[in-house]
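Dear H.,

Thanks for agreeing to be a second pair of eyes. The structure we're designing against is below in token form, covering all 714 positions.
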């Protein structure tokens, strides 16, 4: 457990700092790049080369002198440059204060930077300052304020189309949700940021986003997806030579190998990390890698090399002086010593670990106390400044208001006299015009009434024409649907319950009896209902005739595969973004010679009721139409029938109907229970009972879909 603790701490620590550092340094370099003064540019480049000088509080003197030079030149462009440079420098001072735990100074610096950016309309600098304020609030645990400032920064960056800045905001918001263990929201923001970074071809930050997403999946114990995203991160970091972040990604992948007990792969990963950290002369990375290797040796029972690597790791951590890492390393060594029987060494390591834990707790308590005290002092100062400014403003407002009132009193008197004169004259003119307008309005109202009556007659006439056309379409659809004579040849005992929602139906039924004692029958539910569904049903009916009757295809799965191809070609469906019209269908081929039934379904099941028991045969979970980029063939199920079995096909309209005392869906279970309950009755009576039950359930509710059920007795 100790090993996992410091690995996680290592990853989060370096991720946060590397991202914030790049935000500040990149900004300073951009300002230097755009300065209009060549001599000044050279001076600033020298400053950037001295990294410690950039982040010293004494840097204020350089800023002050630079601003005085800009003002003395009285050059607006130069003055604006110095103001921009000043806002950036203040922002960097906030960064240093934040790193030192000086919350009050950090917030004061970031807010002053944001204020100056607003004054000079530097939207890029404003976005970064707001983002940094959010980071401070996140560090002290004020999640609400952190999210507020992150979203303010996001809004600014979206406004100026700063795509990289937008992606950084998405990742910061995602990190807040990750720390709160709200993984779905964290994942959504990480993925949004990743999409932008991939478009920008920013491989370094894209790799960090991949790694963040992988960390979410590892927390959810979804190892395959976690490994997939970590590998994507590692591939990009290897490509661009980002060894620093590659170290962190390798640790995450090593942890996955450990969880799956692939110790040889974990060891190889940690050894690669050790070599990389040594090439960078990165002592903390070397120490972490040694401890990782020691842990793998311990887990695999290789205690001698585990002790060797563990002691080297502890020695390095003690030189660096990080209590958290010393605690984890001593915990690992105590377990190794205990395994080898070195109980004295194990005890010494436990004492060292407890000492480090006490130190960590004391440091955290002290740091929290100092932060709260500084924050309180800052907020107190802000309140005092606000009260003073508000008081000065009120005094100024009162004086200004007195002068303004006196002027308005004089102007108002003159204006009132003028208005009264104008009003009297105007009323005389208005009265004359109103009489004329009233007469004209009466005439217009009469003409509008006549026009409304005429328009209503036209609407009624058009509506009648439309209804007549749809009724005629219904007669055509009924003529196309398979007739009763064909169904009687399928089985003397059968019923078809067919209740369209509108005049024409999106459901259709179809049957055909072959010369070799086979009966092919189907029930389909097309996309939509009414006229659109009616067109689709006509198309499906026509294609079934072509496939079965003309092409003599009598295999159920082959029929559905052919039907899908024809629907896709007819509707010109060419990709995942195109329209998804199609149909759900249940299709059966009944071989009466050996009394077997071949069933193939697209989303619609088949039910067989036998001796007061119902058997459900599942369909393929895909429609007749475009579903996936790669088509998956439909499958068939073969059923041995017995005399007296009743085969049922149904669309979803009956089960999806709203009704009952609570206005809820009927659902499939009550329908199946009804079929079992009525199984011994004649099929004609079963149909009546189904219609009666449907009407009682629906009651005053509208019918929501076409309703179709077919029952066939064997």
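And this is the sequence the design step returned. I haven't edited it by hand at all.
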């Amino acid at each position: 457990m100790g090993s996992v603790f410091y690995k996680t701490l290592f990853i989060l620590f370096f991720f946060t700092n590397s991202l914030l550092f790049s935000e500040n340094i990149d900004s300073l370099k951009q300002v230097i790049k755009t300065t209009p003064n060549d001599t000044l540019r050279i001076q600033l480049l020298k400053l950037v080369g001295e990294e410690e000088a950039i982040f010293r509080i004494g840097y204020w003197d350089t800023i002050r002198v630079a601003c005085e030079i800009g003002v003395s030149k009285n050059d607006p462009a130069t003055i604006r440059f110095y103001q921009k440079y000043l806002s950036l420098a203040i922002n960097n001072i906030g960064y240093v204060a934040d790193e030192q735990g000086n919350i009050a100074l950090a917030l004061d610096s970031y807010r002053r930077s944001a204020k100056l950016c607003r004054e000079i309309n530097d939207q890029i600098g404003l976005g970064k300052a707001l983002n940094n304020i959010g980071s401070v609030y996140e560090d002290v645990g004020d999640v609400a304020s952190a999210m507020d400032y992150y979203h303010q920064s996001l809004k600014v960056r979206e406004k100026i189309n700063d795509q990289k800045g937008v992606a950084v905001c998405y990742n910061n918001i995602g990190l807040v949700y990750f720390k709160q263990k709200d993984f779905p929201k964290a994942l959504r923001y990480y993925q949004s940021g990743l999409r932008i970074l991939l478009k920008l071809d920013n491989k370094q930050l894209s790799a960090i986003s991949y790694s963040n997403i992988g960390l979410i999946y590892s927390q959810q114990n979804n190892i395959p997806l976690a490994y997939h995203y970590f590998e994507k991160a590692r591939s990009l970091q290897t490509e661009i030579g980002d060894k620093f972040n590659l170290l962190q990604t390798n640790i995450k992948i090593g942890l996955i190998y450990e969880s799956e007990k692939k110790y040889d792969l974990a060891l190889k990963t940690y050894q690669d990390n050790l070599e990389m950290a040594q090439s960078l002369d990165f002592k903390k990375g070397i120490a972490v890698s040694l401890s990782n290797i020691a842990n793998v040796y311990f887990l695999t029972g290789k205690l001698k090399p585990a002790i060797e690597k563990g002691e080297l790791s502890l020695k390095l951590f003690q030189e660096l002086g990080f209590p958290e890492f010393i605690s984890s390393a001593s915990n690992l060594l105590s377990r190794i010593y205990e395994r080898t029987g070195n109980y004295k060494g194990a005890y010494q390591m436990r004492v060292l670990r407890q000492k480090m834990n006490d130190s960590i707790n004391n440091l955290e308590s002290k740091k929290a106390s100092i932060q709260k005290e500084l924050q309180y002092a800052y907020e107190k100062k802000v309140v005092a400044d606000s009260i003073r400014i508000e008081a000065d403003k009120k005094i100024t407002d009162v004086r200004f208001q007195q002068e303004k009132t006196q002027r308005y009193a004089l102007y108002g008197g003159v204006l009132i006299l003028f208005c009264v004169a104008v009003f009297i004259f105007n009323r005389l003119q208005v009265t004359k015009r109103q009489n004329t307008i009233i007469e004209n309005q009466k005439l217009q109202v009469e003409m509008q009434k006549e026009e409304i009556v005429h328009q209503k007659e036209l609407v009624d006439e058009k509506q009648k024409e439309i209804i007549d056309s749809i009724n005629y379409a219904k007669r055509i659809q009924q003529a196309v649907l398979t007739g009763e004579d064909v169904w009687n040849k399928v089985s003397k005992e059968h019923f078809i319950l067919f209740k369209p929602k509108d005049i024409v139906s999106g459901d259709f039924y179809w049957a055909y009896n072959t010369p070799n004692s086979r009966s092919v029958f189907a029930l389909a539910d097309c996309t939509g209902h009414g006229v659109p569904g009616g067109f689709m049903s006509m198309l499906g009916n026509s294609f079934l005739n072509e496939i079965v009757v003309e092409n003599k295809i009598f295999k159920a799965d082959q029929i559905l595969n052919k039907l899908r191809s024809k629907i896709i070609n007819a509707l010109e469906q060419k990709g995942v973004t195109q329209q998804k019209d199609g149909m759900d269908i249940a299709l059966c081929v009944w071989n009466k010679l050996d009394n077997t039934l071949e069933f193939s379904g697209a989303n619609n099941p088949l039910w067989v009721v036998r001796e007061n028991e119902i058997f459900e045969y599942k369909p393929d979970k895909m429609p007749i139409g475009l579903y996936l980029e790669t088509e998956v063939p439909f499958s068939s199920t073969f059923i041995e029938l017995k005399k007296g079995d009743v085969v049922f096909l149904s669309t979803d309209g009956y089960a999806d109907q709203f009704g009952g005392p609570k206005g809820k869906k009927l659902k499939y279970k009550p329908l199946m229970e009804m079929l079992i309950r009525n199984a011994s009755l004649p099929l004609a009576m079963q149909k009546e009972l189904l219609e009666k039950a449907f009407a009682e359930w629906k009651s005053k509710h509208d019918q929501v879909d076409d309703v179709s059920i077919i029952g066939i007795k064997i």
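Two observations from my side: Residues 513 and 519 are 4 Å apart (CA to CA). The chain has a mean pLDDT of 81.

Warmly,
E.
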